[in-house]
Structures
1.
Amino acid sequence: MTSQPPLPDSKDVTAIMEDVAAREIVPRFRRLADHDITEKNPGDLVTTADIEAERDLARELPPLAAGSVVVGEEEASTDPSVLEALAGARPVWLIDPLDGTNNFAHGKPCFAVIIALCQAGEVRAGWIHDPLGGLTAWAIAGEGAWIRESGQVRRLSAAAPAPVSEMKGSLGRGLRKRLAAKREAGDTDTPARMVRYRCVGQEYMDLARGRLHFARYGGRLKPWDHAAGVLLHREAGGFSALVEGRAPYSPRPGIVHGSLLLAPDTNAWDALHRVMNGV
């Protein structure tokens, strides 16, 4: 059995996230020069804020958990082999220093910092910070999900189950268009309210606090995008699984190719899956 060291105090992790965001991200918002923005791949932007925030988080987080290592999005983009650490026994800080980079680079106030602490393929804790809103949500496996807002801490609860037609959720553009076409053709058993923030961190916070009923993410499921959010949603009472095989999502030493569906509970998941399957 893998030995699991004590978890760090969540307040210490939150303090580091908030400090790094205030120092490296917020001052650069809507102040990026041309040389501050580059492309990792066509359309996949990275900014100076991403790089500097990851550097600081990678330096400051490991002392909080003995023997831990770091897997950061920007490092993994240049050296995918670092993802192999997720298969090992040591605690891994999984870092998305600036989720929603395209929003950030275009001056849209919808981005987040995401951190998960993983070990042996399990997510032990996760944190999501909204630098502009001053919100931080976190979850500890088996201990619930929480948010600090306006200085007050409260427990999070996912949305209550509802008929599919009354649910609001996040879907990719193609699936949104196909479901909207079905609804316009008279099929009322489809979601009426479909959105996409282009920032999964913000979406996961809204899933965990009941502002969104569901979300579906497909294609390349990157661990730094989903590890913390899936835990946050689960600890808030929601249910999620990979569409292919209905297996639970877990961070792996690579990028999962498939689709992840999140819903209020198992019955809602099944209903949403029936509506979306084959559309």
Note: The chain has eight helices and 14 strands.
2.
Amino acid sequence: MYKREQYEIINERLREPRKFIQVVMGPRQVGKTTVVRQVLKDLQSVPYLFFSADDVPATQKSWIYDCWDAARAQMRIEGSKEAVLIIDEIQKLKGWSEVVKKEWDEDTFNGIDLKVVLLGSSRVMLEKGLADSLMGRFETIKMAHWSYPEMKESFGIRLSQYIYFGGYPGAASLMGDQERWSTYVKDSIINATIDKDILNDTAIAKPALLRQTFELGASYSGKMVSLTKMLGSLQDAGNTTTLSGYLNLLRDSGLLAGLQKFSVDLSRQRASIPKFQVFNNALRNVYCGLTFDEAVRNPKGWGRMVESAVGAHLVNNVPIGGYEVYYWREGDLEVDYVLKKNDRIIAIEVKSGSETTNAGLEEIRRKYSPYASFIVGKGGVDIEKFLSLPPAKLFE
């Protein structure tokens, strides 16, 4: 079975003496549970207990005490000097961080070598709990959506399949049955994330509007659309402030981002029209209205999918790469993506058709003297090579 790069990190940390709680975070269906189970299997001699809070009532934080007591009891029964306790989706329980702090500190005081791994798909709720109670007691391990090289190596998919079907390992075997693939993406990823990670954790006045915002924004992935214009297309319209807040929630859940225009003037940047961008092209293409075969024969539609795939690759790697993603536009000139890390910027234009004019790149070079600027696609860096490159390496 394929092992993601986080396998080595988790494996190494669980073999070290007990020092920190390990927190594995990332969107749904990216393999957090799988990679932890792979590590536990290879540890062999170390006993462990695995619990999931997915279906535990949010107010039942006493459940965490039960998990801890069960792990300690197992250590006593088996005469083990060490063990590993894994709790999945712990952020769903209200007040979870205070309980974890209490139990972790108690084990530390009593010299109990119980190592702890927490997993979660709601990054905001996890980080809030960690910041509130567990400062100095944890390390994070961030996981992103699967990259093209990972999907290619694991499932043998072609570039065109990755551009259309995206990078969800659980959906890879369903590509031959698009209706089944679409149902899986909508039910197991989109609906599960909205229902369990957003609506359960956040007071949302208009849940239907949140769903509509995602569906419309995902279908527009790679395009700039004003929130005011977007309101006119929504049935349960609120206001632009509401939509902006929903976009932040969708971004933090690894579904959809609203990229801002790159500008040295931060007020203009914040007031800019967002460019919608999914984190995984599957999230866009379940709403595209084209089958895979129809898409690859449609030059215009395919070009939009390619641009969205490049954008997904960029935003997906933000937590790992530590950079920011923008777009740039001035008058009729635009650049698809602008990356910023510290004082370096990188300008990227995506070309998948016959058009070869690069006036936007020329202008941004003149105005900002970027660290690097280039085309991805026709007349530039090969798309397959670009999707195989960790974006953070562009800054080296």
Note: Residues 178-199 form the longest helix (22 residues).
3.
Amino acid sequence: MDISVVVPLYNEAESLPELAAWIERVMDENGFSYEVLFINDGSTDDSWSVIQGLHDANPRMKGVSFRRNYGKSPALNTGFDRAQGNVVITMDADLQDSPDEIPELYRMITQEDYDLVSGWKKKRYDPLSKTIPTKLFNATARRVSGIHNLHDFNCGLKAYRKEVIKHIEVYGDMHRYVPYLAKIAGFTRIGEKEVKHRARKYGTTKFGLDRFVNGYLDLLTLWFQAKFGVKPMHFFGLLGSLMFLLGFIAVIVVGALKLYNMYSGNSYTLVTNSPYFYLSLTLMLLGTQLFLTGFLGELIIRHSNDRNHYEIGDEITADDTPALPQRQVTGIENTLHQTVTAQQ
């Protein structure tokens, strides 16, 4: 199968028939073999009934319906699990993404050897309250992820090589950072295509301004996992050691100042009366706790079931390697073997 189109949706019953007809027309004009996976994320309108009708008219229109609303990331991950096409296209169901972009996205994956191609809505039909935070958000994502050629990480219109979506897991709200997830998994051939942004025709947006706050928190999580996910001691152990060392040095300084004042005949107070003493102890305790956190993290990783799970790009096996000739047993070795056997 050439293409799988994954469409996550929530309360988009009005736009689904038009979107399905548009996708079908593009696929037929280009001679693609395809399937369309509508992932109904717990819609409360007639979206699922519409999807069932679309499937009756065209069996290549398939669907999955959640019992409740889980979010876009679980919907995408469910679609990725079921996608069978060599190239997987994701798009939103609100008709703001144009199916006419599919042939070029498919060509960039199959002919230009990209692992992932992300859409870039250079000209947007959104209010400033959405576009300005989006630009700041994408600038931060580029800096943290190191993927400097992408202008819009959160564009719903993307194309993937099949191997990519089978080696990543989209969870929480990580759909904003699928290119970063792909890079972490070792798929570094990431490109971008400028696509048209269409004004919403039906309904209203399902996302609020809180997505920007959550987006930064998710980005921080991904950065930490990519950098320290398999070596937590490098973060917690280093930070804990530094804090403990600073606290230990501070305690020595506090004690040395008291001894100096005692032998110099200067006035002095008890060490326990100094606030610096308690700050020093606090640093030492926090440092110890952070160090133990890193140590426990290492133990958990080493004893987890998938501790040896690494993304393998290719492999050469020895199935076709001729077997080595059997080494002949010398007379001395045969005598030794018989002696040992007799002794046993």
Note: The beta strands are 3-9, 34-40, 61-65, 87-90, 116-120, 158-161, 190-194.
